[in-house]
Amino acid sequence: MRTKKRSLVATKVYGFNPWMDQLLAINQIMESTGQRSEAPVIRDLIDEALTARRRKTSEVESANNGSRERELSETLQGVQALLLKLIEHCETGVRAQSVSLELLQEVAAEARAGRTGLWEAMAVPTLRQAGKDDTHIAGTFDRHTNEGKHFAYSLAEQIRIELLAEEDTDNRSGVDDRQGRLSYDAPDVATEQCGSVS
Questions:
Q1: Rounded-to-integer distance, Cα 119 and Cα 67, Å
Q2: In sequence order, what are the residues at sequence separation of 6 or more whose Cβ sits closer than 8 angstroms to the Cβ of residue 190?
Q3: Taking a C-beta distance cutoff of 8 angstroms, is the pair 43, 12 a contact?
Q4: CB 42 within 8 Å of CB 23
Q5: Angle at Cα 127 formed by Cα 121 and Cα 131, nearest 5°?
Q6: Are the CB atoms for 163 and 106 separated by under 8 Å?
Q7: d(Cα 91, Cα 85) in Å, to the nearest integer?
Q8: In sequence order, which ranges of 119-186 are alpha helices (DSSP H)?
Q9: Under 8 Å CB-to-CB from 99, ≥6 apart: which residues?
Q10: How far is CA 12 from CA 8, 37, 63, 183, in A?
Q11: Are 181 and 164 in contact (CB under 8 A)?
Q12: d(Cα 50, Cα 26) in Å, to the nearest integer?
C-alpha cells in the first residue's frame, strides 16, 4: 500500500476509541510486521478498507448496468417481435387485397365483354336498320356506359354519406368505430362522354 509517494495531511487528525477486537487486531499486526507505531498500520487498514469499498461499489454498479442492459435487450426483443408480427399481418393483408383486385378486374372484364357482346349482337343491327351510322351507335354505347358509371358512383357516394353520418352519431355518443369509411373522388361523367349523341 506504500509503493506510491503520498503526502500526509498534518492539519487533519482522526481521533477515535477503537473496539477491543480492533485494538487486539492492530496489536497483532504490529507484532507480526515489527511496526512500533499504530499510525502506519491504521493507514494501511484504511487503504485496504477503501479499496474493498470501491471494488464493492464498482461491482454493484456493474450489476445494475448489466440488469439495465438486460431489461433494454428484452424490451428491444419484444418490440422486434411485435414489428415482425405487424409486418406479417401487413403482408397477408396486401396479398388478400391483391387477390381481391384481381377478382374485381376479372369481374369488370367479364361484365364489359358480356355487355359489348350483347350490344353488338342485339342493339347494333337494330340501330343500323333504323338508319343510324357507326358514330351514333358508338356514342349511344358510350352514353349508356357513362350513365352506368354515374349510377354506381352516386350509389357509392350515398353509402359514404350514410356511413359518415352514422360515424358522427357514434362519436357523439362515445362509440369509436372507424370501420366502413369510404374515400374516393367521383369522376366527371360529362367529360367522359366521347361525343355521345342522344
A1: 77
A2: none
A3: no
A4: no
A5: 140
A6: no
A7: 10
A8: 124-129, 134-172
A9: none
A10: 9, 18, 36, 83
A11: yes
A12: 17
C-alpha cell at 175: 362509440
Q: Among all chains, which residue has been given the C-alpha cell 361523367?
A: 189
Q: What are phi and psi of 83, to 5 degrees?
A: -65, -40
* 194 residue type, one letter: C
Residue found under cell 496489536:
27
For the CA atoms of the chain, what is the radius of gyration? 46
Q: What is the pLDDT of residues 98-110, one digit of tens each?
A: 999 899 899 989 9
State the cell numbers at 33: 510486521
Cβ neighbour number for residue 128 with a 10 Å cutoff: 13
For 104-143, what is each residue's pLDDT tens digit?
899 989 988 998 998 889 888 988 898 989 899 889 999 9
Considering the entire predicted model, what is its pTM? 0.39
Would you call 94 helix, strand, or coil by DSSP? Answer: helix
| Residue carrying C-alpha cell 338508319 | 131
Provide the grid cell at 107.
369481374
The helix/strand/coil state of 185 is: coil
Written as nine digits, the cell of 172 is: 357523439
**Residue found under cell 352514422:** 166
Residue found under cell 349508356: 144
Q: Write the DSSP symbol of residue 1.
A: -
**Continuous segment of H or E residues that includes residue 17:** none
Residue 32, all three cell numbers? 507480526
For cell 343500323, what's the residue? 128
